[in-house]
From TrEMBL:
<keyword id="KW-0732">Signal</keyword>
<keyword id="KW-0602">Photosynthesis</keyword>
<dbReference type="GO" id="GO:0016168">
    <property type="term" value="F:chlorophyll binding"/>
</dbReference>
<dbReference type="GO" id="GO:0016020">
    <property type="term" value="C:membrane"/>
</dbReference>
<feature type="binding site">
    <location>
        <position position="70"/>
    </location>
    <ligand>
        <name>chlorophyll a</name>
    </ligand>
</feature>
<feature type="signal peptide">
    <location>
        <begin position="1"/>
        <end position="16"/>
    </location>
</feature>
<dbReference type="InterPro" id="IPR001344">
    <property type="entry name" value="Chloro_AB-bd_pln"/>
</dbReference>
<keyword id="KW-0934">Plastid</keyword>
<feature type="binding site">
    <location>
        <position position="177"/>
    </location>
    <ligand>
        <name>chlorophyll a</name>
    </ligand>
</feature>
<comment type="subunit">
    <text>The LHC complex of chromophytic algae is composed of fucoxanthin, chlorophyll A and C bound non-covalently by fucoxanthin chlorophyll proteins (FCPs). The ratio of the pigments in LHC; fucoxanthin: chlorophyll C: chlorophyll A; (0.6-1): (0.1-0.3): (1).</text>
</comment>
<feature type="binding site">
    <location>
        <position position="73"/>
    </location>
    <ligand>
        <name>chlorophyll a</name>
    </ligand>
</feature>
<feature type="binding site">
    <location>
        <position position="179"/>
    </location>
    <ligand>
        <name>chlorophyll a</name>
    </ligand>
</feature>
<dbReference type="GO" id="GO:0009507">
    <property type="term" value="C:chloroplast"/>
</dbReference>
<feature type="binding site" description="axial binding residue">
    <location>
        <position position="75"/>
    </location>
    <ligand>
        <name>chlorophyll b</name>
    </ligand>
</feature>
<comment type="similarity">
    <text>Belongs to the fucoxanthin chlorophyll protein family.</text>
</comment>
<dbReference type="InterPro" id="IPR022796">
    <property type="entry name" value="Chloroa_b-bind"/>
</dbReference>
<keyword id="KW-0148">Chlorophyll</keyword>
Amino acid sequence: MKVIAAILALAGSAVAFAPAEQGSRASSALAAEKPFSDALGATAPLGMFDPLGLVSDGNQALFDALRERELKHGRVSMLAVVGYLTTAAGIRFPGAENIPDGLKSFPALMETSDGMNVIYQMGAFFAVAEIVNRDATWLDKEPAEFIGDYRNGALDFGWDNFDEETKFQKRSIELNNGRAAMMGIWGLVTHELIGESILPGGYLPGQ
């Protein structure tokens, strides 16, 4: 097994450090064989990862719907990781100093009326965020520039000044950071549940 693992590791390393031209030819070949192989998020070495074949027929509408959900979950997960690590570091809003971190924060909030108010506010925020974070045609008649573009003519921190290559790069960064965050928050919560810390100093939230 060790020999097999070593061979696979060497093969992966060879692909990772392959010349750009060779990687480009391989990507072009894949694009010709598989739908969406050149789409945003088709990252080496897996390329267009669709093991269930959900969009193997080239269904653009389904691909866009799945991409929108991937972006949404990734964005939420990035916020979740930041919030989880921030509270694990001991940072609290004024008045919430005695609220534990991790999953135990929810039952602690439900014990008091002030805590329940916080939960109600969270619910209201989620509802508003769900309504606003979409291509709101009632706010902006211009169509979204891409899937996940929720600026709606109101938010623009210089995006329109970027060239197409820079835009593609920044969208790739967001997508891949979101993917990492989805795995990250799940890993943090899972380790909390099993009682094994993965944080510096062996700190375990919720204890």
